[in-house]
Write a structure and sequence with these properties.
Strand order of the largest sheet: 1-25-24-23-22-18-19-20-21
Low-confidence stretches: 1-31
Largest sheet: 9 strands, mixed
Structural class: mainly beta
Helix content: under 10%
Strand content: 35-45%
Distance between the termini: 20 Å
Order of helices and strands: EHEEEEEEEEEEEEEEEEEEEEEEEEE
Number of helices: 1
Radius of gyration: 18 Å
Mean pLDDT: 89
């Protein structure tokens, strides 16, 4: 269960791939989906947001290189930007076909998710943010003002399931992750602490909130240090809580009972940490993005990021 986080002090740089290596990478991921990551290419299907709020994606199975998308949402550094900003917040890529969804906040309050239209360079909009895609790459989950919506990646504008979330004056949601093909976890804060809610798509229901910690609530500072990390390769639900002495705690929990099976420490300077099966991605407060597979050694991808997953 121990992850490679303990080795972050000795991160190694990503090496360039030769043409022969690129061919191997493409073959390894072909059966799992065009953008499914692997041990040979852990960055495939990765997305990141730079410190200039530009989105970069790794969506080409034949290479480990990224590409930067055109400006999506507002540029907060533009002289023409007003007060009602809508900036890129998180990104989800379908492992099946590399479809990209860019979640943005915070105008309107429900958030906006951008996705590519049929015309190249055209970005259409969906209501809701915090996009998350099912493990098979087929379904898209979005968090709206007070509801979780599910649609197909192929037709994201046609909502198939709507599940009520706690009212806005009760809870504020911050992170989402699919646990399996039928369940979506959402973490957020109330006046009483940090919680995780699990929605069942087939039943259209929301399980009672599970407490992560009551030491942090929606009025606390540094909320990014608490909440949902994702799921690991053993189907554990993974959460994070603020620790002491420069460390935070990553907890590996049973997805049904929510009991903590084991935990590890990470630096409290970690701005974002997202686990998606065997692939982990982390950004520290210096903007350094590192990625690794399973218990492998972390690889430094770049140093100008504020989010990755």
């Amino acid at each position: 269960m121990k992850r490679a986080l303990l080795c972050l002090g000795v991160l190694v740089c990503v090496a360039s791939c030769s043409n022969s290596a690129e061919v191997t990478v493409e073959k390894e991921t072909a059966n799992a989906g065009r953008c499914a990551p692997s041990e040979e290419n852990p960055t495939l299907g990765l997305a990141a947001i730079t410190d200039k709020y530009r989105v970069r994606v790794w969506d080409d199975p034949a290479t480990t290189a990224s590409r930067e998308l055109e400006q999506i949402g507002d540029d907060p550094y533009s002289n023409n930007t007003g007060y009602d900003l809508t900036v890129a917040e998180s990104v989800a890529i379908s492992p099946k076909d590399c479809t990209i969804f860019v979640g943005a906040c915070c105008e309107p309050v429900s958030g906006i998710t951008f996705y590519e239209g049929e015309i190249k360079g055209e970005w259409l909009q969906l209501t809701g943010h915090l996009p998350a895609i099912s493990p098979d790459g087929e379904l898209l989950a979005l968090v709206g003002y007070e509801e979780l919506t599910i649609s197909s990646v192929e037709a994201p504008d046609k909502v198939s399931t709507t599940i009520a979330l706690p009212k806005a004056d009760v809870a504020t949601m911050y992170q989402t992750a699919w646990l399996n093909g039928d369940q979506v976890a959402v973490s957020g804060f109330t006046a009483n602490g940090a919680f995780v809610w699990v929605a069942s798509i087939s039943e259209g229901t929301l399980r009672p909130a599970q407490l992560i910690t009551n030491e942090v609530n929606w009025e606390s500072r540094n909320l990014w240090r608490v909440g949902l990390v994702g799921t690991d390769e053993n189907n554990n639900l993974v959460t994070r809580v603020a620790g002491v002495d420069g460390n935070d705690i990553v907890q590996f929990r049973d997805a049904e009972s929510f009991e903590v099976r084991s935990n590890i420490n990470i630096s409290d300077s970690t701005i974002t940490y997202i686990m998606n099966g065997a692939r982990s991605a982390m950004v520290n407060d210096q903007g350094v993005l590192s990625v690794w597979w399973g218990n492998g050694s972390p690889e430094i991808v770049g140093d100008d990021y504020n989010w990755a997953g």
